[in-house]
Specification:
The chain is α/β, with parallel strands linked by helices. The chain contains 10 helices and 13 strands. The strands form 4 sheets. It has a 5-stranded mixed beta sheet, with helices on both faces. The chain has a 4-stranded mixed beta sheet with strand order 8-13-12-11, sandwiched between helices. A two-stranded antiparallel ribbon has the order 2-3. A hairpin with a 3-residue loop joins strand 12 and strand 13. Helix 3 (about 55-70) packs across helix 4 (about 90-100) and helix 7 packs parallel to helix 8 (about 255-265). The longest helix has 23 residues, at about 215-240. The radius of gyration is 18 Å and the shape is globular. The structure holds oxa(dethia)-CoA.
């Protein structure tokens, strides 16, 4: 018998304000056509001025609890993946815990930028397998609109705000690739590439929040290569191949990265959950948002093999093979 971390419920939240590409045409030297063809993005959501990451995360958490038919006291732990917390501390996780009225268990944040949700899933999986926790909610939540340089056309058109939450629970599996739940994980980082994607401020350096800086083109080239290879590693570890994948649920940074990775894996785009056109790049929130959208519209069904992969600042990248 093998303990597996099995999905029990999923939900998401997007702020009300939808910002079409045309909005940026009035702000900077860009066009709807450039943004669509280079990134696949048509629109994104921006949080209201008084809306924090913890509020987005709490709304997604409530949706996931409803979906699972569970209450906050059924959870042992909450892990929030975010690079845009409300405050330097305490964690967004503990804020969500308080908002839900959950007084037992524990909550904390994981920061691996766009790979944050993958890293948080790996954390939750390890805790469930080791018996440290039985039910863990993993949330990806971001307000990247707060760290944009609105004069930098190469970045400010790409990102959006949102949150998604997945509840995992311990269940007995047979120890085969046919089990439901997380079947394999793969994590990497390489700090030599920090200049490719970083924020130019922080607590112990400038004492400011800073703005996002990105070398888009070199990062693009790293992304396809590393995403295809981490996806392959997770599948091999799970004893599966790309033919077994029902849905790639990728990090949604750029449709061309998603297409390039799927092509390298030999998976058709008809087996990819795409939300980049509607959400933009929501960093750690993008995978649980896409998973939630795909589950809600009926594409992702019980027993489907999902492969999620992500890369972001660090660089940090990784993947998870998960049977729904
Ligand atoms: O989530 C974390 C991971 N993030 C990523 O993996 C993002 C990876 N990178 C990308 O998605 C793409 O590199 C971008 C979408 C950021 C850029 O696409 P690209 O095809 O790599 O374009 P580029 O950076 O090579 O720029 C091409 C041209 C440049 O003009 P010149 O030098 O050729 O005259 C840019 O100045 O496009 C120009 N440009 C723009 N033009 C209109 C850059 N941003 C814009 C813009 N509107 N918003």
């Amino acid at each position: 018998m093998t303990i597996r971390a099995v999905p029990l419920g999923i939900g998401h939240y997007l702020p009300d304000r939808i910002v079409p590409n045309s909005y940026f045409e009035t702000l900077i030297d860009t066009s709807d056509e450039w943004i669509r063809t280079r990134s696949g993005i048509k629109r994104r959501h921006f949080a209201a001025e008084d809306q924090t990451t913890s509020e987005l995360a709490t709304n997604a958490a409530r949706a996931a609890l409803d979906n699972a038919g569970m209450g906050p006291d059924d959870l042992d732990a909450i892990i929030v993946a975010t690079s845009t917390p409300d405050l330097t501390f305490p964690s967004v996780g503990t804020m969500v815990q308080a908002n839900l009225g959950m007084t037992q268990g524990f909550a904390y944040d994981v920061q691996a930028v766009c790979a944050g949700f993958i890293f948080a899933l790996c954390n939750a999986n390890a805790m469930i397998i080791s018996g440290q926790a039985r039910r863990v909610m993993v949330i990806g939540a971001e307000t990247f609109s707060r760290i944009m340089d609105w004069t930098d056309r190469s970045t400010c058109v790409l990102f959006g705000d949102g949150a998604g939450a997945l509840i995992l629970g311990a269940e007995d599996g047979a120890g085969t690739p046919q089990d439901r739940g997380i079947l394999a994980t793969d994590m990497h980082s390489d700090g030599r590439h920090r200049e490719m994607l970083y924020v130019d401020g922080g607590v112990s350096s400038t004492g400011t929040v800073g703005k996002l800086r990105m070398q888009g083109n070199p990062l693009f080239r790293q992304a396809v290569e590393k995403l295809a290879s981490t996806a392959d590693a997770a599948l091999v570890r799970a004893g599966l191949t790309a033919d077994d994948v029902a849905w790639i649920v990728p990090h949604q940074a750029n449709i061309r990265i998603i297409q390039g990775t799927a092509k390298k894996m030999g998976v058709g785009m008809d087996r990819v959950i795409l939300t980049v056109q509607d959400h933009g790049n929501t960093s750690a929130a993008s995978i649980p948002l896409a998973m939630s959208v795909g589950a809600a519209d009926g594409r992702i069904k019980r027993g489907d093999l999902l492969l999620s992969e992500a890369i972001g600042g660090g660089l940090a990248w990784g993947s998870v093979a998960l049977r729904w």
